Amino acid sequence: MKKNHDVRGKGKQDEKKMRIKKYEERKKWKKKNKKKPERLQDIQVALVIKDKSTPQNTKTKKQSGKDRWKSKPDNVHTTNRTNPNSVDAFKPYIQEGSSDFQHFTVIPESLEVREGEDVFLRCVVQNQRGKAQWTKDGFALGFERNVPGYPRYSYAGDPELGEHHLVIKGVTLTEDGEYQCQVGPTITDPPIWTAANVTVLLPPKSVRIVGWNEGSLVQVMAGHSINLECLVADARPPPSAIWYRGPELVEPNLQEDDVGASTLPRRWNLRSQLVVKAEAEDDGREFSCQASHPALRSSMDPPYSSIILSVLHPPGNPIITGYDMGEALHEGERRNLTCLVRGGNPTPWMEWYRDGRLLDDRSLSDGPPPAELESVIFKTYQVTATAEENNAVYMCSVSNDLLSNPLTTNVTITVHYKPRTVTITGNIVIEEGGLLDLTCRTSPSNPPAAITWVMRGKLIASTQSSVEEEEGGGWITSSVLKEKISGVGKTTHFTVECRASNPAVDNTVKATKVITITKPLGAPVLEGDFGRDIIADSIILISCFTVGGFPPPTLSLYKNNDIIKSKLNYDKNITRVKAEINITPVDNKAEITCQASNEVTTTPLKTSARLSVLFPPWNIKMSIRPVTVEAGERVTIKCESSSSLPPANITWRSSGTLLRGASTRASKGSYGGTYMTSELELRTTAGDNGRMIECIADNRIGAPLVSNITLTVLPISSSIQWFEVPI
């Protein structure tokens, strides 16, 4: 067994020596056919093993200049590079059927990223024996996973599994370039590498229309052309531009675009030119240039620049709307005569004339033009048709700086007039069962107007009417209505309408009055805790209601002539007021008054009730005389309770023992209550010194009140005699 083991070991050593020999021969061959390498990637050789688990790497030519921005997907560029030396170049040094050499199973893919985003380039090596690192544009980043000197760079993955992913946090323009994942050679393995490009997308720094400030008003004569040039600056890759004529997209084939290098490194400028032939319809229209760029695809507000064209042109012929020639207006009818003119720059001005007299601008107003007209100037004069307006001529005159003579148009007004007003006079507030007496009178009309009455929705057939001639012209018609108001039930209002019509015009002038029927209200009724005793410090609810009455009555609650804050409620035919009162001893025998009234009540209706409040004493006071005594002397202790209802019962205690023999008297107290006074006389002993005497006042309303006092008793003094001693 040992011999066989030695044979196997010797075979492995021979195989290793053969591989080392082949590697040394390869080095000599490269030294002979190439100059001395300066970088690791200059001697790298790709070994790609084609099997089910390892995809075939492809080689594509690196793009440069303007061509590299053509035909690129939205966010991934799939150009990758591996060792420029083919597998065939290394075949003489590889044993047929061998798969032990280190090779890539996952290679990085080129990316396009926005500045500030993160980059993750994948790289996985199978059978790795050499050291792995990344380079950027030929500069080695080192073998350490945290990439010293580059705080935003790191290698991710498990190196034991051959995972060497490059992570770049928050890329900037400096990260734009070619990145290679490299694995160095060993005694038995050649070096390998694979590459991918990272392209940093930078949106345009500015967009402007050359020659004008943002939003400038650009003046041009109608029919002339103007050349607009849009500069979209400092983007990577080159940007494009979209032109808009107002909200409409301009055909792309009408613009001429030119891409050039920016003054900033690795950035591009776009100059887009658009030739616009100004038309009158373009006056006031916005022309805008909007930047388009891969870095702006998710932007809801891409940058743009705009100007507004001011196209100089004369106005069109004015027209008057709102009245047709030969049309008859009804007297009192109001018509808006609107003069409209389309276009005109500089802005034209208008003037209205009536029978050759210039109208005051204060009588004119600007209003919205008809919806079917756009870009119009307009001025409106409101005509109120009267007899004086018949055959009046209204002329509109339009001028601007490009016109040598004003443009004019006119209309002649025809008026048929009816009464201007109808007036109803008389008493509109009446008691149920009373007589309604109203008069309707028209203003002058021609011919005279006919009057009809409508009351409570019904036409009144017989009324007295009269006609009189007005000195200023026309006729005045009057009519009298007299009706007894009865059988109205619950009705409180009804309307009376006077209608005046003129046979010359198909129109009716109306006047309406609302008649109010007054009704008496019922006597107020108090509800609440009246007629029983109420404990102090409780809250009671007081309400008062009345039935009927119109107009709806108002109810108010008072306590001893002071109004109580309350809430009024109307429910069908009942009016009710409610209030909450916090009861105190002061409220004993307080008078609660409910007062009801409405607009037609001459004297308010009232009802009253008194409160009966029970309350306990709120304090007790004790005193003693004399304050200090000698043993054997008497002391008198007094206990006085505050007013209470019912009167308080006073008891005495000392050390839990009830003391008897006290005298008690009552006197009239505040708020209708009673003051109670109790006196207790004691003969003291030497043992009473420091004894505590308690007074308890209780009327079973609330908690008892307790107070105490301490006795001070001195011992009996000895007899002392004084003698005079001669000196």
Question: How are the secondary structure elements laid out?
Answer:
Elements: H1 2-33, E1 80-82, H2 87-90, E2 103-106, E3 111-114, E4 119-121, E5 124-126, E6 132-136, E7 139-140, E8 153-156, E9 165-168, E10 177-183, E11 192-201, E12 206-209, E13 217-221, E14 225-235, E15 240-245, E16 248-249, E17 255-261, E18 268-277, E19 286-292, E20 304-312, E21 319-321, E22 328-330, E23 334-342, E24 349-354, E25 357-358, E26 364-365, E27 376-384, E28 393-399, E29 407-412, E30 414-416, E31 422-426, E32 429-431, E33 435-442, E34 450-455, E35 458-460, E36 464-469, E37 475-484, E38 493-501, E39 508-521, E40 525-527, E41 533-535, E42 539-550, E43 554-559, E44 562-563, E45 567-571, E46 574-582, E47 591-597, E48 605-610, E49 612-614, E50 620-625, E51 628-630, E52 634-644, E53 649-654, E54 657-659, E55 663-668, E56 674-683, E57 692-698, E58 705-710, E59 712-714
Parallel strand pairs: 3-11, 13-20, 22-30, 32-39, 41-49, 51-59
Antiparallel strand pairs: 1-11, 2-5, 4-9, 6-7, 6-10, 8-9, 10-11, 12-14, 14-18, 15-16, 15-19, 17-18, 19-20, 21-23, 23-27, 24-25, 24-28, 26-27, 28-29, 31-33, 33-37, 34-35, 34-38, 36-37, 38-39, 39-42, 40-42, 42-46, 43-44, 43-47, 45-46, 47-48, 50-52, 52-56, 53-54, 53-57, 55-56, 57-58
Describe the structure.
This protein is mainly beta and 727 residues long. The chain has six domains: 37-201, Immunoglobulins (Immunoglobulin-like), CATH 2.60.40.10; 206-312, Immunoglobulins (Immunoglobulin-like, Sandwich); 319-416, Immunoglobulins (Immunoglobulin-like, Sandwich); 426-507, Immunoglobulin-like, CATH 2.60.40; 522-614, Immunoglobulin-like; 620-714, Immunoglobulins (Immunoglobulin-like, Sandwich), CATH 2.60.40. It contains two helices and 59 strands. Strands 32, 34, 35, 38, 39, 40, 42, 45 and 46 form a nine-stranded mixed beta sheet that branches. Strands 1, 3, 6, 7, 10 and 11 form a six-stranded mixed beta sheet that branches. Strand 55 and strand 56 (674-683) form a beta hairpin. It is flat, with a radius of gyration of 56 Å. The N and C termini lie far apart (146 Å). 27% of the residues are buried.
